[in-house]
Amino acid sequence: MPRIFSGIQPSGELHIGNYLGAVKNWVALQHQHESFFCIVNYHAITIAFAPDELRRRTRDMAISLLASGLDPARCVVFVQSDVPEHTELAWIFNTITPLGELERQVQFKDKAGRQEQVMAGLLNYPVLQAADILLYLADIVPVGEDQVQHLELSRVVARNWNARFSPDTPFFPEPQAKLTPTRRIAGLDGQAKMSKSIGNTIGLLEPPAVIWDKLRPVVTDPARQRKTDAGDPEKCPVIYPLHKAFSPAETVTQVETNCRGAGWGCIECKKVLHANMEAELVPIQVRAAELHSTPALVDDLLADGGRRARAVARTTIDAVRDRMGLDARSVRAAGVTP
Ligand code: TYM
């Protein structure tokens, strides 16, 4: 059975770009595949951060994921730093990854441009991502569109390592990205992708009134200056795609007819969207509030996820070390299980 792996940074609250581009898909896929979902706190420390905030955000992200529907009885939800094998494999992969592959990563160039000083960890970020995925020998990686280039690098890493250390039967699979129709959700500005670092997000746990205050001023088709002007939903960069994600198919058809025929004004159209978002998000928000009141339970679930992930990770690392001549002499001699 194909195995699934995906990750998310604990960079504050889950936003609806993460939710629609990735997490909603994870919730569906956990029923069909053996799945590992990781809160990637080692990735989060490649740019400036505050330790206490990172700790809080890590748990908050776990709460958002569980509230969205990830079920620890069906998948493994864990924190990256609870499984040190991620960094071990990343180091190994650093030794077989050409520098040029890393320097041409769009996300690196983007993020590096916003840093005062660029640390080596930011450049090596996608190598750690390859280690995350390949540690679990995952075949399928459900992500949004912005991660596709990183996934290509993961395939290069798998190929390079296999060619060098497992040439006859490839040890690592070449993982494939799995995208959804909502692979790129635009931010509230209608231009950039929705992203915490740009500050154009709708948070999954924001109260409906706050979401409405954000939706109301959002740009729509510029041709619709007045309610009586006909519009084109394809030119509506935020509201129409969100209708397609949150509204039933009949409503999406109504939106198209009423936009083209100037039947609804944009505010009316936004109100319909808001009601459908509220219907999907409020139950998640209720579950999140419950989990917030039981932090020890969340920590226990994560600890258990870490143990389950680590058991798989150990098996992979042992095989990798063996094929590379990196035997764990001192540990074995002491009779300690690494
Ligand atoms: P991150 O934390 O930025 O985002 C988590 C997931 O959300 C998707 N996403 C979006 N999808 C659609 N529209 C948007 N506006 C949008 N914004 C974010 C992302 O594509 C991603 O799937 N490098 C990764 C984390 C990572 C990872 C991994 C992912 C580390 N190791 C291994 C997969 C496998 C990242 O920063 O995602």
Q: Would you mind describing this structure in some detail?
A:
The protein is mainly α. The chain contains 14 helices and five strands. The protein has helices at residues 16-29, 41-44, 51-68, 85-94, 99-103, 106-113, 120-135, 148-165, 208-215, 239-246, 249-260, 266-292, 295-324, 329-333, and strands at residues 3-8, 34-39, 76-79, 140-142, 176-178. The longest helix has 30 residues, at 295-324. The structure holds tryptophanyl-5'AMP. Tryptophanyl-5'AMP (TYM) binds at residues 5-9, 17-18, 21-22, 40, 43, 129, 132-133, 141, 143-144, 146-147, 150, 183-185, 193-195.
Q: How would you summarize this macromolecular structure in one to three sentences?
A:
This protein has helices at residues 16-29, 41-44, 51-68, 85-94, 99-103, 106-113, 120-135, 148-165, 208-215, 239-246, 249-260, 266-292, 295-324, 329-333, and strands spanning 3-8, 34-39, 76-79, 140-142, 176-178. The chain is mainly alpha-helical and 338 residues long.
